[in-house]
Amino acid sequence: MNETAASRSTEQTTNLPELDPFAGFPPARTLTLSTRTKVFILLALAAGAILYLYLKFMAGDGSQSSPQKATEGFFQAAIDKDAKAMASFLYFASGEAAIEGMDKESVVQNWEKLFKEEPEIVLLQDFEVLDVQEVNDAATVVIKVKAGPEEVSGEQPYQLKKVKDKWFIDLFGQR
């Protein structure tokens, strides 16, 4: 008796087109992808995810998310003698507050020239962040640096300014 009831319910569902919302439409076509295409799509998605994570955590934003990170980024660029990277951590005022000859391009050119002509003078060997004091959108970071061929060390405070959620070293005092 169960077999006949099951066959009746199957007949009822196939014989009632008014209950099927897709009645009258052609059967759906399925798209089949080759294994090679599936692997390519998965690799592209994985590469995109890796690139996103790299940019999110390793590039620009993360390196200036705190006064300490901005200062460490600046001094690491100085050790690497990368003038453009050093300048990316500095605050440059625009308009009337700008100091003549202290624009980003001039500073980068001067540092690159100094790195080429007198590399022993700018021989920064190591640095250590000693103290960070943050108040609203301003901060003071005290750094201990070891520089020069004689490994002279000293402590120096740096003023930082927060602009659009990024910290910049205010090296030229352009508040």
UniProtKB/TrEMBL annotation:
Keyword flag Transmembrane: yes
Keywords from the named record: Membrane, Transmembrane, Transmembrane helix
TM region positions: 39-55
Biased composition (Polar residues): 1-16
Domain of life the protein comes from: Bacteria
Chain residue ranges for the region called Disordered: 1-21
Gene3D superfamilies per the UniProt record, alphabetical: 3.10.450.50
Official protein name in the record: Uncharacterized protein DUF4878
Lineage of source species: Bacteria, Bacillati, Bacillota, Bacilli, Bacillales
